[in-house]
Amino acid sequence: MVLMSVLAKIKKFFVNYVAGAFFIVTILGCSWALLHSGMFRIHDYTHAARIAELLRAAQDGHFPVRWSSNFGFGYGMPLFEFYAPLPFYVGALFYWLGTGLVPAVKLLFLICSILTFVGMYKLGSRLFGHAGGLLSAVAFTLAPYRAVNLFVRGDLGEAWGMMALPWVLLGVVRIIRREKGGWVTLVFGLVTLFLSHNITTLIFLPFSALFALGYFAIEKYRQRSPIIRELSFVKKFSQNFQLLFFLGLIYVLAIGMAAFYLFPAFFEKDLTNVNGIFQGYFRYENHFVYLRQFFTPFWGYGGSQPGPEDGLSFFLGYGQLLGVVVAILLAVRYKWRRLCHFRQQLRQHEFLSNFFSPQLMTFVLFAVLTSLALFMCVQHSEFIWHQIPLMVAIQFPWRWLSVADIFLALLIGSATLFINTKPRRYLFVFALSLFILATATPYFQPENFQDVSHAFYYGDPQRIRHDMSKTLNDYIPAQMKLDPKSKELLPIDVPFVVTTGDPKEVTQLVNHVQEKLFQTNFKDPGKIELPIANFPGWATFLDGKKVPTSQADLGNIVLNVPAGNHLVGVQFLDTPIRSWSDIASALSWIILLYLLLWQASKNH
Fold first, then answer.
1. What pTM was estimated for this model as a whole?
2. Rounded to the nearest 10 degrees, how much is the dihedral formed by the CA atoms of 198, 204, 206, 211?
3. DSSP 3-state assignment of 91?
4. pLDDT tens-digit profile of 370-394?
5. Which of 47, 342, 381, 590 fits a 20 to 30 Å CA distance from 289?
6. Contact between 67 and 532 (Cβ < 8 Å)
7. Residue 309 to residue 298: CA distance in whole angstroms
8. Higher pLDDT residue, 108 or 20?
């Protein structure tokens, strides 16, 4: 009794204080660079401009935000129809509340790390207990690839996508365990993933399905009984099918909630220049990882290159690799001890049930999923890439590290399943977590701390048109006539150009992101050229009546105006796919609200 009391106190101390301390130290370790007064240079430094553009559109009443008026060299482009918008909605909220653009971007970095740790800790605790949950959280939050995304590439969307992964798996675990509210965790984890990063969504969904099936099988094996249950086979099969069917329905609900973004992004992508980024340098054949790069502690701030001499690191981490080795040794020791009891197990006719344990099956599940994700990074998997045309959109095979890292962290956490005594388990977790902190924290810093806020992080419309547009022209509408060499347009700063008629005969009444309105009084028929790329959805109106939209040679919109007093304008409307997607999202959110209210009433 005394021993049990001591162990209970140790556990309470560990959970309440040690875990909290590791949380604080881990977040500081991967976020301390954000304490610098300025902002640092990263590969993708367009976050501030995107936040400013999204807020401008939202304040003009454009929702859901799809169009950016200043990107595309002032001709605009449907940036937020194709680039996952959730981080920028959150950043726009911070900016609207008065934080400033640089603090808003820093808060997005910080939130990402905090929710990554919390989600992983909750997931690991469900699978391995609090000790294993803490180890998994430290290993995943401090994965070197997260440092690459945050402080080298600056891929905020992918970092947020990684943040959503443990919450998705946590929802799956809670549903399979039939916990109340598990479906809420899963649906919000999936929606966060869908609206944060397209590529992470594409590569993770199959793995989440494999995890769900594997974990479901393990749980069913865990609940086995040597005595034949009274339930019939048909009834048990029906119950299992209902559970998996319910799990699938939650995926469908989450897809519906994010449909306003997912479906237009998929079905209208060919209307832009985005397919151009899947060619040449960006072809996946140029960016496979060499196996030794997973184990080479190189760190750099350059880019991905063909061959093994990349300018950025694909290292899995000293502590993570040590954790895998220890987990394998503990699993082998565990299996060996069971082999030693082979004869006794045969006599008891329980060899299979004693030899194959849920602990070992869990370890094998994460080992297989980790290996499969790492396999997709290397050139040996090229035959798979060739068979699935959609995978060309992934561009960089090393993006599978985002999936590999979460299962690698869970594989490390599963080592605690093979340590029988709690003191030893806690000691192991404490030592390995400290080692991961000591070896991984140095990666979570920028190349230098030179204040580049003014140079790269701004929301000024003119600078976005002239400078920032050069770094982000993937989604310029396809009909725009870009310069053949530079793939750019000559920036335009005027709200309209009167090509036929007197400019004094035109007065602009409305100048919103999604709507322009003019009062004209031409003596003769006139023509107004607008700096708006003629993307599907833009409609032209004359005195309130919709008229055919004309297009200039460059690909922008032209208003043909009769003589006399007229109200003419353009408005960004929904195409059929956008309309149906918005309806699907609205209905899905209504269903979610109804389910939440129903569950709340049921709990009372």
1. 0.93
2. -150
3. helix
4. 999 999 999 999 999 999 988 999 9
5. 47
6. no
7. 10
8. 108
